[in-house]
Structures are given as C-alpha cells and as structure tokens.
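Try this one yourself first.
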C-alpha cells in the first residue's frame, strides 16, 4: 500500500501531499501524518485518495463526535481539533487571496470562532425515497456520492433540528407522493425576540388536502414555520402558520 506524508489541508479538509511529482489529495489525513492511502481518481498531475491507515498520527487528531461522520458529507474536519480547524481555514483564505487576487494582508488578526458544535443554522437537506414502502431518508449527501446519508441526528445542526430528522422522515413518508419532495431547506434564527425555526419544503407536484393537513399538524406539533416551494426561488410562499412573521432575510 502506498504511503505519503501530509503537508497541509486543502479547502475541503483533505490532506495534501506530493508523491512522485503528483499532488495527492487524501481524505481523512491531517498535516504531519504519515498515512497509507488508496486512490480513487487518478489524473496526470494529481490523484484523489482516502487514507486507509494512519502510521504516524497528528497530535491535533481527535475522535469525531458524530457517529455519521465517516459516511455523511455534511462536514469534513471533525477529526481535527477545533482551534486547528480555524487555523486551517485561515490559511486557505490567505492562499486564495494570494493565488487569485495577488494580495497579501498587511496585518492578520486572530480568527473569529464560534461554537465547535451546533453552529450551522442554515442547511439544505436532501430527501430520497427508497424502494421499500414508507422508507425515506432525509439528510446530507454521502461522501463522494449523490445518495443521501442514513442519518437520524446531526451534531452541527441546532439540537432542535437534529431531533427533527427522524420526524421529517416520517412526515415525508406519509405524503401522497414522497418521491416528489427532493429537498428541505432549514433556517434557524431569532425573530421578534424569540427563536424562529423555518423549513422550506420543495415539492414537484401539487399537494393533496390530506398532505396539507399533515403538514399543518407537523408545524403545530413541533413549533416550526413551514414554507412551500413549487418552482424556482420566486415560488416560495408561507404555508403555516399563516400569521408567522416575515423571514429576516426576505
């Protein structure tokens, strides 16, 4: 099995190394580590690979908190401690400023950092109807795949939204045409002094009256505001409750 010593991280959290004149982008590898890897894309100037074994481990490696981390593509750096994640992202920004704009900052301030978990207040969740009756998946796409990750929780979404994932699966599964709802957008923010949890349901076919009643019951039971989107962004409309305050960014 080939080996490589990781030099840095790219903007997607992959380890970067050079082997025999090629740039190697290795998933699951951290700077300073010696890893064995297996390539899944080979080009003349670079390869993409995944680490199959860590022979020399970085002191900044930590155990991922989320049990779906290995398969879910929602985030890529949970195996790196939070302060090192912020430093890596700062280096990516500095590299982009130089390589794209030929700019170097006169002064670099300490990066602003928020919570390490539950920080993603806006997200687009994919929906996939499996062949088995009543079986629906809601979540982020899998790594290197268009399939939806089989997840019932998420450590980067607000806890109230994470807890809703299994309920959203049940909601969509009970609709007349569950295979015609491809995505659910999530937005959590503060409005009029209280938290507002908004879901935008993208549906490709008109909803039945039974569907609409089911959606209203879900919104009331879980304290969320539902919007429906039947076409492009201009088709988004408030569904329930009808007296909900307008979105802060609208």
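Now uncover the answer:
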């Amino acid at each position: 099995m080939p080996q490589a010593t990781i030099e840095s991280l790219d903007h997607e959290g992959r380890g970067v190394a050079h082997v025999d004149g090629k740039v190697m982008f290795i998933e699951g590898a951290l700077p300073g580590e010696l890893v064995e890897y297996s390539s899944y894309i080979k080009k003349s100037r670079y390869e993409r690979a995944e680490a199959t074994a860590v022979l020399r481990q970085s002191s900044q490696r930590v155990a991922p908190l989320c049990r779906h981390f290995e398969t879910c593509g929602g985030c890529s750096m949970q195996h790196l401690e939070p302060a090192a994640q912020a430093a890596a992202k700062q280096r990516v920004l500095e590299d982009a400023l130089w390589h794209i704009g030929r700019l170097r900052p006169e002064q670099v301030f300490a990066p602003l950092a928020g919570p390490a978990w539950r920080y993603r207040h806006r997200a687009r969740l994919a929906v996939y109807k499996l062949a088995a009756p009543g079986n629906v998946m809601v979540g982020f796409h899998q790594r290197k795949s268009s399939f939806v990750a089989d997840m019932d929780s998420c450590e980067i979404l607000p806890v109230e939204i994470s807890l809703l994932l299994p309920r959203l699966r049940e909601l969509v599964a009970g609709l007349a045409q569950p295979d015609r709802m491809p995505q659910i957008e999530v937005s959590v923010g503060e409005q009029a002094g209280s938290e507002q949890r908004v879901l935008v349901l993208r549906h490709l076919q008109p909803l039945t009256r039974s569907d609409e009643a089911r959606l209203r019951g879900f919104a009331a039971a879980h304290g969320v505001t539902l919007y429906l989107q039947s076409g492009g962004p201009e088709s988004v409309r408030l569904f329930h409750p009808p007296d909900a305050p307008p979105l802060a960014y609208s």
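Discussion: The two ends are 53 Å apart (CA to CA). The CA atoms of residues 9 and 32 lie 10 Å apart.
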